[in-house]
Write a structure and sequence with these properties.
- There is one protein chain.
- The chain is of the alpha/beta class and about 500 residues long.
- The protein folds into 2 domains: about 190 residues, Alpha-Beta Complex (Phosphoribosyl-aminoimidazole Synthetase, Chain A, domain 2), CATH 3.90.650.10; about 270 residues, Class I glutamine amidotransferase (GATase) domain (Rossmann fold, 3-Layer(aba) Sandwich), CATH 3.40.50.880.
- The protein has 14 helices and 18 strands.
- Strand 6 and strand 7 form a beta hairpin.
- Helix 10 packs across helix 11 and helix 10 packs across helix 12.
Length: about 500
């Protein structure tokens, strides 16, 4: 038989507003979150092919299907309108695990308890809870319930009120009643521990077991990331407020760098004239840093980290006379700034631009493998401490969400004295925070195990800043995967744009 061909069709659709989204995490808006169930195969509770059937080594006789395509269209259009109007605080589909799985996933994601009252309508409890028929579970505020319910009704779509959001954090409970009979009542942390148990078993095979245990035990006590804003993020220095001649910044990259595009955009938004500069440009002498007021060393994996964190990049600087002279002259000028992020942070530490006891001395900091023993990509909370850093001026006291993505970010000091000198001198302006807003070494809130939660270092004169987190990946509000409800309006522009605006303003003032 001749082999059958395959046809692959790619299609594109317009997305008028990428910020008009709803996520599964329950928020309990106004302290009175209402849970709604929107079934798209009303009255049907088929278990064929379901996750429940698989658990019992069965296949089943009848699987879920969509008999009324028009109902799906009506529900989709109505839901899109509700999202656009901001009437939904959370939403999730029930077609992967059934209604109970959907409710639990929403409770786990929002760290909130739920109280659910269901009417079986003649179906069995197992069919009602585990059938994977198409449908949605939504959370709305009490004040918006009538509006949402009416919109679905007008579209010919059923919408059932099935419960409410209740409680927050480790003390939350999950209770489910069917026809008045209690079928589930357990503490939220206990259910989540069961849910995550298999994942943590796999984690033990992939990472430092002590870190995995720490994360697993800490999950039962989690609240939510600590975020705090101490400045008005809308008060940025506009491009037109800078000098007529925009300050030039060199975004320097090496073989393996991959964070240059986001960094360039962030700097451009702040008012810089951005230049893409490769190490080859500097090593061959085809370009000089003389006309630049700032240099930024971007993230990535220079030389694939084969030699270790940024060691190949540092060697390029140290052993190429032209590049070494360019950077040394740039550093000695009093009118320049530098920023190193992730791989660039590792580079600045190796070059001794940060983390040194005396200006120009050898760095007292060594960046090495994460304590977990693996690459960590997470959205964490970092606090901004008082420091001489030009980049972070006016941001002190804030706690912001930021992405990390590194395998070697643990900052170790050559001696306890060196560490204490850095801390007492205010040269560690960034630190990872726990849910109470305190510097932490707890994994995974601290993704690499750096002592005292240190996430960044600056020079004594404040001109040079090195940090492992990626602020350039958070300069647009929609790049934040989560933020407290009362802080979301402050994400346009993102508070992280302030640090780039600070740099542009300082560079302009030294023209």
């Amino acid at each position: 038989m001749a082999p059958q061909g395959a046809l692959v069709i790619s299609a594109y659709a317009v997305c008028p507003d990428i910020t008009a989204t709803v996520t599964p995490d329950l928020e309990d808006p106004g302290g009175e979150g209402v849970l709604l169930w929107v079934p798209l195969s009303p009255g049907r509770h088929r278990l064929g092919g379901s996750a429940l059937a698989q658990c019992y080594s069965q296949l089943g006789d009848c699987s879920p299907d969509l008999e009324l395509p028009g109902l799906l269209t009506a529900a989709f259009n109505t839901t899109q309108g509700l999202i656009q109007d901001g009437l939904l605080s959370a939403g999730h589909d029930i077609s992967d695990g059934g209604l109970i799985s959907c409710l639990l996933e929403m409770a786990f994601a929002g760290n909130r308890g739920v109280k659910v009252e269901l009417a079986s309508g003649g179906a069995g409890v197992m069919e009602l809870l585990f059938s994977e028929e198409l449908g949605l579970v939504l959370e709305v505020s009490q004040s918006d319930f009538k509006t949402v319910n009416q919109r679905y009704s007008d579209a010919g779509v059923q919408c059932h009120r099935i419960g409410s959001t209740c409680g927050f954090g480790p003390q939350s409970m999950v209770s489910v009643h069917v026809d008045g009979e209690e079928v589930l009542r357990e503490p939220l942390p206990d259910l989540r521990a069961l849910w995550e148990a298999t994942s943590f078993q796999l984690e033990r095979l992939q990472a430092n077991e002590l870190c995995v245990i720490e994360e697993e035990e800490g999950l039962a006590h989690r609240m939510q990331p600590f975020f705090k804003l101490t400045f008005d993020s809308s008060e940025m220095t506009a491009v037109k407020d800078l000098t007529a001649k925009q300050p030039r910044v060199a975004v320097v990259r090496e073989e393996g760098s991959n964070g240059d595009r986001e960094m360039s955009v962030s700097l451009f938004m702040a008012g810089f004239e951005v230049w893409d500069v490769t190490m080859q440009d500097l090593c061959t002498g085809s370009l000089s840093l003389e006309t630049f007021k700032a240099v930024v060393f971007v993230g990535g994996f220079s030389y694939a980290d084969v030699l270790g964190s940024a060691k190949g990049w540092a060697a390029t600087v140290a052993y190429n006379p032209k590049a070494k002279a360019e950077f040394e002259h740039f550093r000695q000028r009093g009118d320049t700034l530098s920023l190193g992020v992730c791989n660039g942070c590792q580079l600045l530490a190796l070059l001794g631009w940060v983390g040194d006891g005396e200006d120009g001395g050898e760095s007292e900091v060594v960046l090495t493998h994460n304590k977990s023993g693996r690459f960590e990509s997470r959205f964490v909370s970092v606090g901004i401490q008082s420091s001489p850093s030009v980049w972070l001026k006016g941001m002190e006291g804030s706690a912001l969400g930021v992405w990390v993505a590194h395998g070697e970010g643990q900052m170790l000091f050559r001696s306890a004295e060196a560490r204490d000198a850095v801390i007492s001198g205010g040269l560690a302006p960034l630190c990872y925070l726990d849910d109470q807003g305190h510097p932490t070494e707890q994994y995974p809130l601290n993704p690499n195990g750096s002592p005292l939660g240190i996430a960044g270092l600056c020079s004594r004169d404040g001109r040079h800043l090195a940090m492992m987190p990626h602020p350039e990946r958070c300069t647009l509000g929609w790049q934040w995967p989560w933020a407290p409800r009362d802080m979301r309006r402050s994400l346009t522009p993102s508070p992280w744009l302030r640090m780039f605006s600070n740099a542009a303003s300082w560079c302009s003032s030294t023209e």
